User: What shape does this take?
Amino acid sequence: NAGVTQTPKFRVLKTGQSMTLLCAQDMNHEYMYWYRQDPGMGLRLIHYSVGEGTTAKGEVPDGYNVSRLKKQNFLLGLESAAPSQTSVYFCASRSRQGSSYEQYFGPGTRLTVT
Amino acid sequence: GENVEQHPSTLSVQEGDSAVIKCTYSDSASNYFPWYKQELGKRPQLIIDIRSNVGEKKDQRIAVTLNKTAKHFSLHITETQPEDSAVYFCAASDYKLSFGAGTTVTVRA
Assistant: This one.
């Protein structure tokens, strides 16, 4: 099993450009999450999904959109990138069932907006 | 929403000594409290977690304690080793985690 994978690993954007980050998991997890991590701060939740076709806002959703068309994929979109969106983005997933609440993280995407 | 505060922000310990990191949370409905370790450039990795119906949990050199009344929980690392050097994050809630700001732990040889 690959676990949670993210594409791309690195990206540099110019202000105003758009892009989509892809998260994929092969663990059949219902819950998926997008976080951003800035220096000196913990992870902050951007958006999350509790199942295919559903999404919800997290703590810092402004400037981002998401989609969960397939259970295994969770896409994060930046329509018009801003320098304030320079960050490391982590995707995570978790099973709704069973006794474990553990969230499994992807390797991250380092995004720089100039 | 949930608010998690973590202290200290940095911690330097001599190899073999113990390290303690403390977190407080605001939402009394939170029922799950994981601790993650993150090495430079890597993803966060779960090292231990505790549910609200348990007061203490131990896994070899790592232990976590939870005080629901006071809304705080702590990570204890005993007999620290150089490979314990990393950033540690606490988190709280259920299916939607709120993270503390992190503690950079340095173990001096």
The radius of gyration of chain A is 13 Å. Chain A touches chain B through 22 residues (CB under 8 Å).
